[in-house]
Design goal:
The complex is a heterodimer of chains A (379) and B (312).
Chain A (H helix, E strand, L loop, with lengths): L6 H17 L10 H16 L18 H13 L8 H14 L2 H12 L5 E4 L15 E5 L4 E8 L10 E7 L10 E7 L5 E6 L8 E12 L3 E2 L5 H13 L6 H18 L5 H29 L7 H24 L10 H8 L9 H12 L6
Parallel strand pairs in A: 1-4
Antiparallel strand pairs in A: 2-3, 3-7, 4-5, 5-8, 6-7
Helix pairs in contact in A: 1-3, 3-7, 4-5, 4-6, 6-9, 7-8, 7-9, 8-9, 9-10, 9-11
Chain B lengths: L6 H17 L2 H9 L8 H7 L5 H4 L2 H13 L6 H8 L7 H4 L5 E5 L5 E2 L6 E6 L2 E15 L6 E13 L1 H36 L1 E2 L2 E2 L4 H29 L5 H27 L10 H13 L4 H12 L1
Helix pairs in contact in B: 1-5, 5-8, 5-9, 6-8, 8-9, 8-10, 8-11, 9-10, 10-11, 10-12
């Protein structure tokens, strides 16, 4: 065990910190609005030019081959500097790990550099009106078009984050109608300007047009845009969903940065004798530290070659509940100012409330923990 | 950064785990509730033979934290933390303590009553004034613990001052850390017992563990364990390295481990139902140890207040 950072890690931190402090933009509009999205893209392209957009990727795709630990360090520095949530995150953190694992060399060469450069903007096409956390209930269809060497997609995807501003969608479609539930699904990559695609943006809880419905009417997709084997999409998608719940999307840096902002708010606002809120702020900081150290433990296991599986459900419940709790504490500290929209906390609270719902609700995650981590029987 | 234990550390843990599985099953813990000392016949000498009682003299906190976790898992009814981790390193001549020939306990400010004082040969008393070793002392039994093996007493006596206030603070942190490790072990034990029980137990024509409400209780306990454990290991590392922030790290560990154990005790009892509420069933041996250890060496509120003073 050595919990100190290596000289290389320290040097990487210093380089990241210096660049981020000089370059992180402040006061951008929400990336879930059309104008805000454009401003965010400009920032993410600057990030790419400095080769900080995808630090853990190989050099040839725009990265710098950073270790998972260095990636965590970068994320800590990113959020410490006040960097905004990445609007390209669904591509970079969800699709890309899947492309690295299941994509052909041709797909990797074609997809990854443009993704890293924020030229192609990817959204996730999992959910459907009748398939949210029950992802195996997907009904959108893929019908074989042998003559054209591809597939015809039809159906509706929804709650697609930033779908109205993106250029491409990745998602699961039912390619074998006879097969049961999670069998017979195939993972497709779909350009949103393909004939037959209609995208309609709609508002989220916080009013931003961050969601979209995507209607597919006989949309042609060539075989080259199938990711992984035909009918084997469930297994391919599981890589994406465990990334979504676990490490790659929810870097501890985000939560330690929120805890640090909460402490600042405490110093500004609190009555120092008020024991309950003092305890709540302390608890939030301890829990953010716990998340950080649990992640270091996980990264060490990954680095040693261990495959991670259902543990990501533990992580997902923990960070999403923590995020809500930290924002609730902040709103209490704000008192009468909690309702104002210019402090960032109410907006952040509404965003935090999505955590226990998306990527499989926390109720689903608790079932997975019980069944796959603890070994309890299914019903 | 590499957050993993060495082969040697894991081998030491495994050896102690095997020993305790053999020598300290729940029946032995239960016997300690009713015998004269609250302790066991053999476990103390076996731990001494294995080097656990002198471990803090030769090894670092990070080398013994997993072993302490195992003593929690088994709910060993012996003053392992008080003797081996806290007191022995403070003695001028720790030879007989290391060999398990004498038992040393601690009377520390902030720790609460003195545990196992009536079977102790030596008492190490710590306060802001420094550390004193008592060889002549009187013990007044003051109360029975919720955990029947933990004999509580009040100690009076005098002796020679052997160390300063800094040593007292470090020793206190070592006690809190050792107790946090034991609480992690207890949490694992209660969870293991409950998982086994709800798989076995049938109601309404199905295993109780197939019901979602039961699953969610146990998932919450598992989450609490998952995120308390790394804080305990980090604190052990921090103590080993003598980091200036180690008291804060210890407090984070003790608060989180105590909370995880108390949460798990509650979930374990609820998921066991009435059988868990019976004195004849073993669950209460572990629950009560968890309650006792969560309260001693500073409870979660005390430790969070210490963290708060450092960070707010």
């Amino acid at each position: 065990m050595d919990l100190t950072f290596t000289p290389a890690e320290d040097a990487f931190r210093a380089e990241s910190r210096a660049w981020l402090e000089a370059n992180v933009p402040h006061g951008l509009r929400s990336g879930d609005t059309r104008d805000g999205f454009a401003a965010h893209l400009e920032w993410e392209r600057a990030l790419h030019e400095a080769r900080f957009a995808v630090v853990s990727w190989p050099d040839e795709y725009g990265g710098r081959g950073a270790t998972p630990m260095e990636w965590l360090i970068f994320e800590e520095e990113y959020y410490r500097a006040g960097g905004p949530q990445r609007v390209t995150q669904n591509g970079i953190f969800l699709l890309a790990p899947t492309v690295f694992e299941f994509g052909t060399k041709e797909q990797q060469d074609r997809i990854l550099p443009r993704m890293a450069a924020a030229e192609d903007l990817w959204c996730q096409g999992w959910s459907e009106p009748n398939a949210g956390s029950d992802l195996a209930a997907i009904q959108s269809k893929a019908v074989r078009d042998e003559a054209s060497g591809g597939w015809r997609l039809s159906g509706q995807k929804t709650w697609t984050t930033r779908g109205a501003f993106c250029t491409h969608l990745f998602g699961l479609f039912r390619s074998d109608p006879e097969a049961e539930r999670h069998r017979g699904l195939t993972y497709f990559l779909v350009p949103l300007d393909a004939p037959g695609v209609t995208v309609r943006g709609f508002g989220r809880l916080d009013g931003d047009e961050g969601f979209a419905e995507v209607f597919l009417d006989d949309v042609f997709v060539p075989d080259a845009d199938v990711l992984g084997a035909v009918h084997e999409g469930w297994g391919v998608a599981m890589v994406t969903t465990s990334s979504e719940r676990g490490l790659t999307l929810r870097s501890p840096g985000r939560f330690t940065a929120t805890a640090a902002r909460l402490i600042d708010l405490w110093r500004e606002r609190a009555d120092p004798d008020e024991a309950r809120l003092r305890d709540a702020v302390t608890r939030a900081s301890i829990d953010a530290e716990a998340y950080r150290w649990q992640t270091f433990l996980t990264v060490t296991r990954m680095t040693a070659g261990e495959q991670l599986g259902p543990e990501s459900s533990l992580t997902k419940v923990f960070w999403s509940d923590l995020d809500v709790r930290m924002h609730e504490t902040a709103l209490e500290l704000l008192g009468v100012d909690a309702e104002r929209d210019d402090t960032g906390w109410m907006k952040g609270y509404q965003f935090a409330l999505s955590g226990p719902i998306y990527a499989g609700t926390n109720e689903i995650q608790r079932n997975l923990i019980a069944e796959r981590v603890l070994g309890l029987p299914r019903r | 950064m590499r957050f993993a234990f060495t082969e040697e550390q894991l081998a030491f843990r495994d050896a102690v785990r095997d020993l305790l599985a053999r020598e300290c099953p729940p029946s032995v813990v239960r016997d300690a509730w009713t015998n004269s000392s609250g302790r066991t016949d053999k476990v103390w000498s076996r731990l001494a033979e294995m080097g656990v009682l002198g471990a803090a003299l030769e090894l670092r906190d990070i080398d013994v934290v997993l072993v302490l976790e195992e003593t929690g898992y088994a709910a060993v009814p012996e003053p392992v933390v008080e003797h081996a981790v806290v007191a022995t390193p403070l003695l001028a001549d720790p030879g007989s303590a290391r060999a398990g020939e004498i038992t040393v306990v601690t009377a520390f400010e902030g720790q609460g009553p003195v545990v196992y004082a009536d079977s102790a040969d030596t008492v190490v008393m710590g306060s802001e004034a420094g550390v004193v070793v008592l060889e002549d002392f009187d013990v007044a039994p003051i109360a029975t613990s919720v955990d029947g093996s933990r004999r509580l007493g009040e100690v009076t006596g005098s002796g020679a001052r052997v160390a300063d206030a800094d040593a007292f603070h470090r020793a206190f942190d070592r006690g809190a850390l050792g107790t946090a490790a034991q609480l992690i072990g207890l949490t694992r034990r209660m969870l293991d017992m409950t998982v086994a029980y709800v798989i076995e137990r049938q109601q309404f024509g199905a295993p109780v563990g197939s019901f979602q409400a039961v699953k969610h209780h146990l998932a919450d306990a598992r989450i609490a364990l998952e995120f308390a454990r790394p804080l305990v290991y980090r604190a052990a590392w921090s103590m080993s390295e003598g980091e200036s922030e180690s008291p804060v790290h210890v407090s984070m560990a003790k608060a989180s481990a105590g909370d995880a154990a108390l949460l798990t005790a509650g979930k374990a009892l609820q998921c066991h139902g009435a059988i868990g509420y019976s004195f004849e069933y073993d669950l209460h041996l572990f629950m009560k140890r968890a309650w006792a250890l969560a309260a001693t060496w500073g409870d979660a509120a005390w430790h969070r207040a210490r963290v708060g003073r450092a960070i707010l």
